[in-house]
Amino acid sequence: MPNYQAHLLLGFISFVLVLSVFSSLNFTFSGTVIAVCFVACLLASVFPDIDQKNSKGYRAFRATAIILISAWITAVSYKNLALMFLLLGLWIVSSKRILLLIKPKHRGIMHSYKICLVFSLSVAFISLTAIGSSAPGIFAFFGYVSHKLSDKLFN
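^ thats the sequence. predicted structure below, dont judge the formating
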C-alpha cells in the first residue's frame, strides 16, 4: 500500500500532466490560480485517506477544511461583521466534532468516485467563490484519481 509520500508524488505528477494539457490548449491561469490548483491537486491526492485518524491526510484535511471554510465564510459574509464572526465562531467551535462525525471506515466511501466527484465540485465551487476560477476543482479531480490509481497499482 502506498504511503502519503507516494500519493503526493503521484499527485504532483498529475498536476504537471493536467497543467501541460491546459497549456497545450492555450489556457492561461494567474499565478494565484496555479498555486491553488497545485495545492488542490496535492491535497486531493491524499484526501481519500482521511478515514484514518492518524494519517497525515486526515490531519492536513482537517486543517485545510478549517482554513478554507473559514475563508469562504469570510468572503461571503464580510459586509456584515456580526454575521461573519458568528459563522466563523460556530464553524471553528464545531469543525472538529463535525469532521469526526463524518469519519467513515477505511477504504469505504472515501475511496469511491462519487466522493471524488463531490469533493472536486466542492473545491470548484469554493475556489470559484474565493478566486474566481473553478480550475482547482479539475485539478482536485485528477489528484483524487491519482490516489485511487496508486492504491490499485501498488496493492
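Residues 4-154 form one domain.
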